[in-house]
Every structure is written in structure tokens, then in C-alpha cells.
Amino acid sequence: MPILSPEDHAFFAENGYVVVHNAVPRENLEAVVRAIWEFLEMDPDDPEDWYRDPLPPGGMVEMYHHQSMWDNRQHPRMHQIFSEIFHTHKLWVSLDRVSLKPPRHPDHPQYDHKGFLHWDLDISRTAIPFWVQGVLYLTDTAPDQGGFQCIPGMHRIMEEWIKTPPEDRDPRVADLKGRTPVPIPGKAGDLVIWDRLLAHGNGHNISDRPRLAQFITMYPPAQESDWYGDEALQEARESPRQARIQSWQERTAPPGFPGDPRRFEHHHWETAELTSLGRKLLGLDRWEG
Ligand SMILES: O=C(O)CCC(=O)C(=O)O
Q1: Ligand 1, atom nearest to 118 Cα
Q2: What 3-state DSSP class applies to 87?
Q3: CA 138 to ligand 1 center in whole angstroms
Q4: Burial class (CB in 10 A: 0-12, 13-18, 19+), 218
Q5: What is the tens place of the pLDDT at every residue in 198-212?
Q6: Which one of 172, 179, 197, 267 has the lowest number of neighbouring Cβ atoms within 10 Å?
Q7: Which whole number is the average pLDDT over 21-47?
């Protein structure tokens, strides 16, 4: 039975994003949350401990391969959701990070990240193939909690917008004139999938709780360069598949990601166990046909 309804597909076409509830079980979410605190070597119960290295001000956490993250990537429901978006089950999963965006704190102005909007591609490019990004909410996320935000529907006007660039436009930074970002609140377990043509980012956390999320997307393996970008793929040109496998096995950053200078995952954790689906989503086993 399909997970996405005809209404979900219509909403996605109209707005450029869709929210899918209960993408994975609650215990999976809790396991990633525990791993994030362990990785950061911070006390989840002591907010005074959240504003220091290795957490960068924007809250992007350079952790890629904990077993709990892989359990979400290889969860059959997660795979089915992306299969319905791409109309094929032969997909690879992104090796992406997690986010912990703490609430603003008067003593730590450098962590008062106001939020942003961008695209993860150079939108001055033409003929951009369909591709999506995704974020899994690990905890309930209120509109003021620094979670995902976007300009709904902007993907529909991008073709025209790209054709008429002002001289000074940075091709990855959204021109906000007359456009207001909309925060997308959600429950723990919600998966937001968005068309990459949508200007998106995350907001200002003015609540009293941290925002926690895992970035996950899937894509047909032939679209690998859409994930890494041409430059990073160049590094892995010899074999993008081998680069993925090595990143998983060694618990190191995939090509194109900054990585963690402490190499915490490599030193403290085991290589994640993969199911037969997980092996295919990584590229360790090939999809038939
Ligand atoms: O934090 C978010 O939800 C959005 C992050 C983002 O902009 C991205 O993954 O490209």
C-alpha cells in the first residue's frame, strides 16, 4: 500500500515540499538523539554545556555513521517513501549529517544563529534534473525552534527566476525581496522532503529547547553527481561507490563534507551493521537489473 496519498503528491507539486508522518519508529529517533549528545560529549540535561566545540554556531553536527543513523536510512518505510517520490526502488541513500541547533543564549551570542535560506546547487545552471532533499525530525519542533523553513512554491517559478538574474546575485543565496520564509513545524518522526529547487534553510531558535534532526535523502545512483557536486565527486572520481563504502567502513566523512577533526566516530564506534536493504542503499550490493 502506498504511503504517500494523491493529496501528498499534489501538495508536493504545488508547494515543493511534503511532510510524511511517522517515517521511523520513536525508539529509532531516541537512539539518534542519544548518539548526538555522546558525539558532542555534552550533557543533554545541562543547557550551560551546549555552547562550545565541537558544535558550530549553525548547529550542523559532523556525524555520519552511527548505527542509529543507519537504522533510519535502512528502515523499509524510509526507503518506500523515497521510492514513491522517485518512482523507482533502486536508490542510494545520502551519507549526511545531523543538526543540533541550541536555543539562543544571552552569554553565547556566537551561537545566536539567525537562520538562513539557500539552495544546495548553483541555480544559474540550466536543465537541472529532478532531485529532492529530506530532513527527519528527531524531536517535536515548534515554529520558533530553528527548524526547517522554506519559501513554498518557489520551485515553480525558478525557471523564470534563473533567466533574469540581477548582476549581484549569489547563485546559492536566496534573494528574499518580497518573499517570506515559512517555518515548517513538525512532530518527532516527521520527514520533510523538498524539491531542491525550493529556497530552504533553517530558522532562528528563540524557543527554550534545542532543535534536533537527521538529514536523509535518496536518489538513483546515476545521479550521484547531484549529491556530491561536481567538485567533490572529482575527489571520488575513481569510484564514487568505493568512496561511499570506505566512508561507512572507516566511519569517516564522505567526500565533500568537512568531517570531524577529532575523528570521534572512527575512534569510538563500530562500523554500522547493514541489512540487505542497507547494503544496496550504500552501494555495497548492487540493485538487480
Ligand atoms: O536545517 C534544515 O532543516 C535545513 C538544512 C539545509 O538547508 C540543507 O540541508 O541544505
Answers
A1: 7
A2: coil
A3: 14
A4: buried
A5: 999 999 999 999 999
A6: 267
A7: 98
